[in-house]
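Help wanted!
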Amino acid sequence: MTVKAGAESQAPREVLLVEDSPGDVRLTREAFRGANRTVNLHVVVDGVEALAFLRREGVHAGAPRPDLILLDLNLPRKDGREVLAAIKDDPSLRLIPTVILTTSDAEADILESYALRANCYLTKPAQWDAFEDLVQSINDFWLTRVKLPHRARDV
Amino acid sequence: MTTPSGGPPLVVLLVDDSPSDVRLTQEAFRATDRAIDLQVVDDGVEAMAFLRREGPHATAPHPDLILLDLNLPRMDGREVLAHIKEDVRLRTIPTIILTTSDAETDILGSYELQANAYLTKPVPMATFEALVRSVNDFWLTHFQLPHAVHGS
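Answered by r_m:
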C-alpha cells in the first residue's frame, strides 16, 4: 500500500503506550487528546502484554501495527529494557520507532536504553504543564515531522 | 536573540555539503532556547575523522546528536550511518537523517541501518525546538560523566 506524499500528516497514528501507572496513562491520554485527535492510543500495562500486542497474539490478534511505541522502563512481569531488547532483536518489529518515556533520569538507564537501540529517551516531568508540552513535542516530532518507515507497516 | 537556558552547550554534528542548508540549520538552532555548539563537516570521510578524533579533529568534542545528510561526497551518508552504528563508542549517539529525499527506499534503508529518526528538508524551526527538547535527557548523560562514559 503506498501513501501519497502529504497524506502522512493527516493519517491517523497508532501509538502503543506501555505503562503500568493508571495515573500516567490518564495524563498521557489527555495530553494526546489535546495535541492530536487523530492519535489512536493503545495501552498495555506490562511487558508481556506489550510483546503480545506487537506480535498480535491471543486477544491482540487484530491489533494494528503501531507507528510509535512509548515505553516505560519499570514494568511488571517483563521490564521495559527486556521489551526494548526484544523489539530491536525482532526484524518484524525493530523498525518501529521506540521512545523510552519513563520517570528515571539516571544516566545508566539513558545510556543502556540507547545501547539497546531505543530511538529516543525522554524523562517524564512531574508537572502537568511540562508533561503536556512533552507530549506535544512527541506529537510534533515523531508523529508529524519524522518520516516513518511505511513498508514496516502492513496495514 | 533568545537567552540559552543554561548548562553546557549541546554539541551537534551536522554532516551536510550544502552551504545554504547548513546556514538554515544554524539559524534554526539559534532560534531554540538551548545553547548549541554546532559543528559542521561537509563530507562522509571528514565526518568519520571528526567522530574518531583523527588528524585535525584530534580535539573534536563528542557530539550529543548527529544530523546526517544521505548524499555526501567521498563517503555517502548511508555508509557513515553504518559505521556509526557498528562502532560501540559511537552507536549510542542519536543519529538523525536530515536529507532531501523522501523516497521509501531511503527512509526504510535508514531505519534498517538503525537511524534514530528521519527528517526531510526543509525542516521548520519548531521541529528543531522539539528535537532539542527530545535530546535533553541524552545531554544529561554527557554532562554528568562525559569521559567515564566515552573515554577509551
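OP: Thanks! One thing I noticed: The first strand of chain A starts at residue 13 and ends at 18.
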